[in-house]
Amino acid sequence: MELRGRSVRLRPVTTADAEPLTRILLDPEVARWWPNYDRERVETEIVADEPDTTHWVIELQGAVVGMIQATEEPEPEFHHAGIDLFVDPALRGRGVGPEAIRAVAAWLVDERGHHRMTIDPARANEAAIRAYRKVGFREVGVLRRYQLMADGSWADGLLMEMLADELVR
């Protein structure tokens, strides 16, 4: 299924996307937050959809510039969704990330019936946190020693959430 923002197109990931996605993930600015990805891991975890997770390639003017994913909790008592993404750092500041997040969040609310969404960037990832705030996410807590980094250290995560009526469309 395809989703659109003002200037981005989100489409299902294909095998042909493994190379450009791997290239973006190997950029040091992306690899800092998405460590230890190579082509095999991209093909296993991103190209091949996992249960309860949907992956889209983010395209800008026909070029692959990132990936966004949504995970859905199927249990009715805990029904909510999570979003995660990476974008080519060369496009930072152009609104690509917030636009992709907004499109996926609107789909999760309007089509999938979610009332709440979460996102959990590294606490030190200020650029990502700014992008999430623009769409309506707010900080709700710190996840201490949450992510194992490539250098073997643990980084804190920032738990952010957004209710459906807080989405900035």
How is this fold's topology laid out?
Layout: E1 3-4, E2 8-12, H1 18-26, H2 28-31, H3 39-47, E3 53-60, E4 63-72, E5 81-87, H4 96-110, E6 116-119, H5 126-135, E7 138-148, E8 154-163
Parallel strand pairs: 5-6
Antiparallel strand pairs: 1-2, 2-3, 3-4, 4-5, 6-8, 7-8
Question: Using only CA atoms, what is the Rg?
Answer: 15 Å
Shape: globular
Task: Work out the helicity level.
Answer: 25-40%
Structural classification? alpha+beta
Structure description:
The protein has 169 residues and is α+β, with helices and mostly antiparallel strands. It is built from five helices and eight strands, in the order E-E-H-H-H-E-E-E-H-E-H-E-E. The chain has helices spanning 18-26, 28-31, 39-47, 96-110, 126-135, and strands spanning 3-4, 8-12, 53-60, 63-72, 81-87, 116-119, 138-148, 154-163. An eight-stranded mixed sheet has the order 1-2-3-4-5-6-8-7, with helices on both faces. A hairpin with a 2-residue loop joins strand 3 and strand 4 (63-72). The longest helix is centred in the middle third of the chain and has 15 residues, at 96-110. The radius of gyration is 15 Å and the shape is globular. The protein starts with a strand and ends in a 6-residue tail after the last strand.
Identify the notable features of this structure and list them briefly.
169 residues; single chain; eight-stranded mixed beta sheet; 5 helices; alpha+beta
Summarize, please.
The chain is α+β, with helices and mostly antiparallel strands and 169 residues long. The chain is built from five helices and eight strands; from the N terminus they run E-E-H-H-H-E-E-E-H-E-H-E-E. The chain has helices at 18-26, 28-31, 39-47, 96-110, 126-135; strands at residues 3-4, 8-12, 53-60, 63-72, 81-87, 116-119, 138-148, 154-163.
